[in-house]
Amino acid sequence: MAEVLAVIGGVVACTQLAEKFVELSDKLKRYRKIIRDAPKQIDDLREDTCLFATGLESLAEGAKKAFEGHQQTRRVQRVTRNMDHIILQGKNIRKAIRMLLQDFNLSRAASSFKKLRTRLKWLRRQHHVQFLQVWLSKMKHDVSFLSTTFLIDALLNQIKSLEAQKLAVPTALLEDM
Asked: Which of 18, 16, 29, 149 lies closest to 83, judged by CA?
């Protein structure tokens, strides 16, 4: 009877060992993919940051133009406060990404060892990278939302201005709405 239990125990141990090897293999595949794709991820993050910075600058300029000559109503103050917050957040995320990326220069002239070391460092910082990617994505959506809001406000103001002057509102302007 004890021999049967020992055999069953051995089978269970082998099964658990095989399961751990499969888990380890999956992790190694995932890590290998992250290491292999590190240069592309780094380039993509740099590019996304540049696009975000351009969008943020356009939004700030658009906001200034949109509120020129407006009286300081509560709505204008609230939107201005939100803009200031988004601009500050934008500067913070750009700084964080710049600090992260300054360590990751995978130039073609670098030695194979240095490239491998840099890729392993990228792997180690994946949680931080993913956090920054999510934060950047959220900020891009916020900038897009506010840009759309400013565009709609500008169109509504043009329509109101034309209606106040008793002029016909062009259908192209109404279609943009």
From this structure: 149
Q: Which residues contact 154 (CB under 8 A, 6 or more apart)?
A: 66
Contact 153, 68 (CB under 8 A): no
pTM: 0.64
CB contact set of 63 (below 8 Å; sequence gap of 6+): 79, 80, 83, 146, 150
Ranges of each domain in the chain: 2-176
Separation between Cα atoms, residue 104 and residue 67, nearest integer Å: 41
Tens of pLDDT, residue by residue over 111-165, are 788 878 888 888 888 888 888 889 888 888 888 888 787 777 777 777 777 777 8
Residue 151, classified by CB atoms within 10 Å of its CB into exposed (0-12), middle (13-18) or buried (19+), is middle
* CB-based contact 118:106 (threshold 8 Å): yes
State the Cα–Cα distance between residues 54 and 149, nearest whole angstrom.
18
Q: Are 155 and 176 spatial neighbours (Cβ–Cβ below 8 Å)?
A: yes
